[in-house]
Amino acid sequence: MRQILHEWKILDENLPETIFVRVYEERMDLLSAVIIGPAETPYHDGLFFFDIKFQNDYPVSPPKVHFRSGGYYLNPNLYAGGKVCLSLLNTWHGKNSERWNPKMSTILQVLVSIQGLVLNGKPYFNEPNILHKAFMKTEEEKSLSYNRKAFIQSCKLMMVFVRHPPKHFEEFVTQHFRERTSHPCCMQGLYERRNNWFFS
């Protein structure tokens, strides 16, 4: 419990403005998080929800993280079934230095890594067997095509959240999209104007 309270403190003092976390005093082993998709990515201004559970031996073992996908596949690291593949969670290939360290790793690092490393501008290259081909023109074309599909899937997921906002985030979801657009599908026009490279 002391370690979890320490995690709460770290989150309270260091969360970036584009990541929000809800804690549950009656269930300290659970967290809910929402990450706002970064600009210049297929996920721009989208809302991506994650459920986090501290395991009984935490911090020896990393937390369990579940992505609320709505059944949509929109990233090589985020499965339609909810699995999150990330070195820091020991669910993805990576060097020892990138894996969970009980003495140093935190929930904050997990969330920031998902936002920066997973929800990036070229998610197609997240696949380890494709990364080394990034310089090839054919792979860049595939990356562009992947971005288009990822954006469409993300837009469909946002439609789900607008119609059925996750519990405890109802007001947040409504306010988020009200400030940006009257309807999630309008995000496409916004994205096209701001990020022409995406559809070129």
TrEMBL record:
InterPro entries: UBC (IPR000608), UBQ-conjugating_enzyme/RWD (IPR016135)
Top-level division of the source organism's lineage: Eukaryota
Protein name: UBC core domain-containing protein
Transmembrane helix as UniProt keyword: no
SMART domains associated with the record: UBCc
Record has Transmembrane as a keyword: no
Keywords: Transferase, Ubl conjugation pathway
Domain named UBC core: residues: 1-159
CDD domains: UBCc_UBE2O
GO terms assigned for molecular function: ubiquitin conjugating enzyme activity
